[in-house]
Amino acid sequence: MWYPEEFDVIVVGGGHAGTEAALAAARMGCATLLLTHNIETLGQMSCNPSIGGIGKGHLVREVDALGGAMALATDAAGIQFRILNSSKGPAVRATRAQADRVLYKAAIRQRLENQPHLQLFQQAVDDLLLDGDGSGARVAGVVTQTGIRFRARAVVLTAGTFLDGKIHIGLDNHPGGRAGEAPAQRLSARLKELQLPQGRLKTGTPPRLDGRSIDFARCVEQPGDGMPGSDSAGRPLPVFSFMARPEMHPRQLPCWVTHTNERTHAIIRSGFDRSPMYSGQIEGVGPRYCPSVEDKVKRFADKGSHQIFLEPEGLSTHEFYPNGISTSLPFDVQLALVRSIEGLERAHILRPGYAIEYDYFDPRALRSSFETRQIGGLFFAGQINGTTGYEEAAAQGLYAGLNAGLQVRGQQPWLPGRDQAYLGVLVDDLVTQGVSEPYRMFTSRAEYRLQLREDNADLRLTAIGRELGLVDDARWSAFSRKRDALARESERLKSTWVHPRTLSAPEAERVLGKAIEREYPLFELLRRPGVGYEALLSLEGGRWRPSPAVDVTDDPRPLVSRETLGADYEAVVEQLEIAAQYAGYIERQRDEVERSAAYENLRLPADLDYHQVTALSIEVRQKLTAQRPETLGQAARISGVTPAAISLLLIHLKRSR
Ligand code: FAD
Q1: Distance between Cα 161 and ligand 1 center (Å)
Q2: What separation in Å is there between the alpha carbon of 640 and the centre of ligand 1?
Q3: How far does residue 46's CA lie from ligand 1's centre (Å)?
Q4: Which atom of ligand 1 is nearest to the CA of 163?
Q5: DSSP classification of residue 205
Q6: GO annotations under biological process (predicted)?
Q7: Per residue in 240-290, pLDDT tens?
Q8: CB under 6 Å to ligand 1: residues?
C-alpha cells in the first residue's frame, strides 16, 4: 500500500546517525519520518557504554552547539564524567562520560517522541523508490518489509552495521545486524544492484561480565572527576552540553582497572587457529585504534600486559563492560582468557564477545553535502560511510539530516570548513580521502585545532545553527547572553589600563609575579603565565579608569559576574583566559586560514575536463576525473595530487575564465 502522507525527509535507521538526522530535519520544520527496525532500540549503544574522548568529545560538543541530542542525552544518562588531558592545552582537552545505556536510550527516545514534525515508524526498509534512471535517477521514497510505500523528497540512509551484517564467534558465524538483531539483507542486495561503490569492514566487542562475579578488591578503583577519591573531588562534575548543569546527572559510579598477563596472552595465542580473523573467515578491515585483544597480543608480542577498564553499564544492572578485551575468539577461549585476569578469576560472562562484518559505501562517491552523486536526494550517514563510533555517526547524521532538509527547502547545502569545525574535517576527510579502515576522529586530524576546541564549539557554531533553523529559542537566548557578556568583557579588558603608579609593588608581586614598569591593558596582563581572571580582578579593585588614549566602555567595572551569568560564569572566564593566553597562536592560525581561504574555497566546475589541463600526469587526471573534487582545497587533499598539479590546475582555471 501507499502510505497516505508524503514526507519531506525519511531517515532509515534509529542509531546515533539516524536519530540526529531525523531530529535535525524536523527541527528545521521538515515533515520527517524515522523508520527503524525496532523502536525499543532507538539510540542503542551497540558496543561500549561511553560517549566522548579526544576528538570524539569535540564532535559531541559541535552536535550540541547545533542543537543536537547526544550531549544532553549523555548528561541525563552519564554515571561518570572525566576531562581527559586536563593538564594539557585547551585544544586537546576532551570530555568523556560513561553512560547508563537504559537512561541514554530513554533520553533519546523522549526527545524523538516530543519533537514536532517528526513521526516514528517501526519496520525494516527493504527497498528504495527511484524516479528516472542513469545520471537522472532520484530517490522518491522507500518500501518496507511488508510492502508499505512511503513517499519522500529526500532519504537519509543510516543503516550502521546492519547491511549484510555477519556475526563471528570463533569459526561459527551467522547473519546479524548486531547481537540478537537481524541484519538488513534485502536492502543490502538492492544497494548492490544499484552499483553504489562499496566494500566490507569489521568491528568487534568484548564479552560482558556480571559485576557480582568480579572481585573488585583485586582491581584499582578509578573515580570520575568531582567524585570522592579523585584529584578534583568536591568540584562540580563536568557536563557535556552547553545547556546542561551538573545537577542533571544521575548518581555517579567509579570504574575499575585491571590487566591482562602472560597467561592471558598464552591462552589467546592458543586460540589463534580458531580465530575468524586469522583463519581468513573475516575479510573486512577492523578499526586500528580499537583493536581486538588477539590483535594486540599479536602486534605487540613483546608487551606482557594490557590495561582493562571495567566499566559499569548502568545504575539498574550488574553488567560490566571490560574495555580492552574486544574479541571474536571461540567462547571457550574467551572464558579462559577472562578468568586468567586478576579480579576476574570467577567472572561469569553474560554475553559473549563477537566481531561483525558489514557493508560500507565508499564516501568518495558522496558530494560534500553527503548526498550520493549517483542518486539525487539520497544521503548517507554514519557507520555506512566507513566510520566507527557513536560520535562520528551522530555528527554525520545531524549533517546529512540538515543538508537533506536544506535541499527540500530549495537551499544550498551547508558545508563547514576544516577551520570551522571537526565536522568539517570529518566530512572533508571522508569525501576526499575515502577510508581504508574504519575512520575515527582524533584531534591530530585537524590542522587548525587551536581554534577548534571543545570549549568554544558554541561560539563557532550556534549562530550558524540558529540561521539554519536548528537551534531553539531557549538555547539561542542562553547563548546570546553568554556571547554578549564575553564580547563586552573582552573589550573592557582591552581598553582598561593599569599604570605602575596605581599598583603597589607587593600587590603586583602577589598577582603578576613582579612589578610593572609601564602602563598595560588588563587583557595583556591576563596573558602572563599563571595570571587568572579572578586574580586580576582582585588586583583591579575597581580603581582604574579607561585610558584616555583608547576607545572604551563607559564603566570600567567588570561586566562578568556570577550574579549576572549564573552557571555560565565559569565558561565565560575560561574563554577570556584562553583568548588572552593563546592570543598569539590563535592570531597566527587565523592568518594562516585567511591566506589559504581563496585557494581552499575556489570552486572547480562540475564538468571540468581534466584531460584538457596541460601537463597533468595521467594518474592525476584519472584521480581527479574519478573523484571530481568540488574545490581546489579538496583536490589538493586527494592522495597523489601534488602541489605542482594544483598549480597547473590553478593556471588552467585562470586561463579559462
Ligand atoms: P547503528 O548504531 O548501527 O544504527 C543503525 C540503525 O539502523 C539501527 O537502529 C538499525 O536497527 C537500523 N537499521 C538498519 N538497517 C535498517 C533497515 N533496512 N530498515 C530499518 N532500520 C534499519 N564503535 C567504536 O567507536 N568502537 C568500537 O570498538 C566499536 N565496536 C563495535 C562493536 C560492535 C559489535 C558493533 C555492532 C559496533 C561497534 N562500534 C564501535 C560501532 C558503533 O556501534 C557504531 O559506530 C555506531 O553505532 C554507528 O551508528 P549508526 O547510527 O551509524 O549505526
Answers
A1: 5
A2: 32
A3: 6
A4: 15
A5: E
A6: cell division; tRNA methylation; tRNA wobble uridine modification
A7: 999 999 999 999 999 999 999 999 999 999 999 999 988 888 888 888 878
A8: 12-18, 35-37, 41, 46-47, 124-125, 158-162, 177-178, 184, 187, 203-205, 290, 326, 356, 382-383, 388-390, 393
The answer to the question of whether 296 is labelled as a binding residue is yes
Res. 540 pLDDT band, cuts 50 70 90: low
Nearest CA to ligand 1 atom 4: 15
Closest CA to 103 of 230, 252, 205, 241: 252
Cell of 334: 574467551
Q: Cite the beta strand spans of 224-282 per DSSP E.
A: 255-259
Residues 366, 196: Cα–Cα separation, whole Å: 10
Which helix (DSSP H) or strand (DSSP E) does residue 395 occupy? helix 390-408
Q: How far apart are the C-alpha atoms of 451 and 1, rounded to whole Å?
A: 52
Give the orientation angle of helix 16-27 with respect to helix 390-408, to 10 degrees.
30
Protein residue whose Cα sits closest to atom 25 of ligand 1 = 389
| Ligand 1 atom 44 nearest Cα | 389
Nearest to 599 by CA among 414, 386, 387, 418: 418
**Contact yes or no for 18/33 (Cβ under 8 A):** no
pTM over 0.80: yes
Please tell me which of 275-284, 311-320, 493-502 the model is most confident about, judged by mean pLDDT: 311-320
Judge whether 57 and 436 are in contact, CB under 8 Å: no
Residues in the chain: 657
Cell, residue 445:
586530524
ipTM of the complex: 0.98
Q: Round the average pLDDT of the chain to a whole number and report it.
A: 92
